[in-house]
Amino acid sequence: MDMELIRNIQGWGYVSMIFIITIGLYAYIYHLYKSQREGVKDYEKYSNMALKDDIDDSLVEAKDPQKDEKDNEER
Questions:
Q1: Mean pLDDT of 16-42
Q2: Is pLDDT above 90 for 13?
Q3: Over 80: is that where the pLDDT of 33 sits?
């Protein structure tokens, strides 16, 4: 293998990895948008966790003990 072929392979590998990572990023962003739109999870509440982290601050999501028991029974 000569050096030109190796550089071509590296170039195409780089371009394909950037393309795959970009597709993955957009898929993840779409997943977050879709989950928030359907009401499954509101990720905007979690964005303030770093700012509001005092001991006296309210919870981001309250735990539902009945739901936790139901989830444990299913497992």
A1: 91
A2: yes
A3: yes
- Of 23, 42, 24, 22, the C-alpha closest to 32 is 42
Could you tell me if 46 and 60 are in contact, meaning their C-beta atoms sit under 8 angstroms apart?
A: yes
DSSP notation for the chain:
--HHHHHHHHHHHHHHHHHHHHHHHHHHHHHHHHHHHHTS--HHHHHTTTTS--TTSPPSS---HHHHHHHHHH-
41-57 average pLDDT score: 75
Cβ atoms within 10 Å, residue 36:
14
CB contact at 8 A, 43 and 61: no
Length of the chain: 75
Rounded-to-integer distance, Cα 18 and Cα 11, Å: 11
The pTM of the whole model exceeds 0.90:
no
